[in-house]
Amino acid sequence: MADMKAKYGLNMTIHHQPLGFSYGEDVIGPMPEVRTLDQIRASLRNPECSGPDVVYAIAMDVARLQDREELQKRMLLFGVVTYAAGQLGDEPVRSQGHIHRISQHSGWSPPELYEIWQGKAIVYMQEFVEDDPGRCFAVIAGPGEKVLVPPGWGHATISASVDEPLTFGAWCDREYGFEYDAVRAHKGLAWYPLVQDGHIVWQHNAHYMPGRLQAITPRRYSEFGITDEPIYQQFIDDPARFQFISKPDRTAGLWRNFHP
After folding, report:
1. CA distance 157 to 193
2. Omega into 32 within 30° of 0, i.e. cis?
3. Any idea where the Glucose-6-phosphate isomerase prokaryote domain is (predicted)?
């Protein structure tokens, strides 16, 4: 993935053996953190399952050097995540289900904007992490497509490509934080993704009230000013464009009855 700068606005390389990242001279980022299978077992349908020892690598606060000051001023942060290929028992490789911790500077649980870089993803999201999960969506996205998770929704990012790694970037609030307790209390999110004959199927989690899962494809979110250009490049072109990520109150009306 040496053409990241041309494709996605950042001069960096994604590595899969071992999982991680390296940065070009004009890009700064942290040493990637890895999440092992043992660390995420509590969020899986079958905590005793087998799978890759290192499930995914994550680097939060990746940026061009010249953008650092602007990002700090706007309380924005760009993260990059890459998943191992394979399965976690009968589940696909995925993140832990969570909601975003309320940000002190905004008073909101921040939204998050994803862009798929490699592989095929399902961004699963549900309105609530209580017994009634509300509306539930599985947004199926491929390279270059964007998915917006609204404030306060429970969500997880799932690899729909069992035989290849999944990599994506995301705009986040600089005060990002993950809360897992409510999801873990329900033994996961309201729907479990399962791999069956190479395809993803869904099983309802009986710890939630019965409901309906809607499988959809991404849209443009034009009401937020998002275009088809890579999301980091969109920040370069217009640093104010993603202010709604760190200050979601500015678009409060757009979050009401939000449809992914």
Report:
1. 11
2. no
3. 48-210
Calpha distance 133→46 (Å, rounded) = 21
Parallel, antiparallel, or unpaired: how do β-strands 167-173 and 99-100 relate? unpaired
**Beta carbons of 87 and 219 less than 8 angstroms apart:** no
CATH of domain 4-255: 2.60.120.10
Q: Which residues have CB under 8 Å from 17's CB, separation 6+?
A: none
Ordered by start, the domain boundaries in the chain are: 4-255
DSSP of 59-71: EES-EEGGGHHHH
Write the DSSP string, 181-236. Answer: HHHHHTTSSSEEEEEETTEEEEEE-TTS----EEEE-----GGGT--SS-HHHHHH
CA count, 13 A, side-chain hemisphere, 212: 3
Beta strands in the chain (DSSP E): 12-16, 19-23, 27-28, 33-36, 54-60, 63-64, 76-83, 87-88, 91-92, 99-100, 112-118, 121-126, 136-141, 146-149, 154-159, 167-173, 178-179, 191-196, 199-204, 213-216
d(CA 247, CA 136): 25
pLDDT in tens, 22-58: 999 999 999 999 999 999 887 788 889 999 999 999 9
The helix or strand, by DSSP H or E, that contains position 240, with its residue range, turns out to be none
pLDDT of residue 162: 84
Q: Which regions in the chain score pLDDT beneath 50?
A: 1-2
* pTM above threshold 0.70: yes
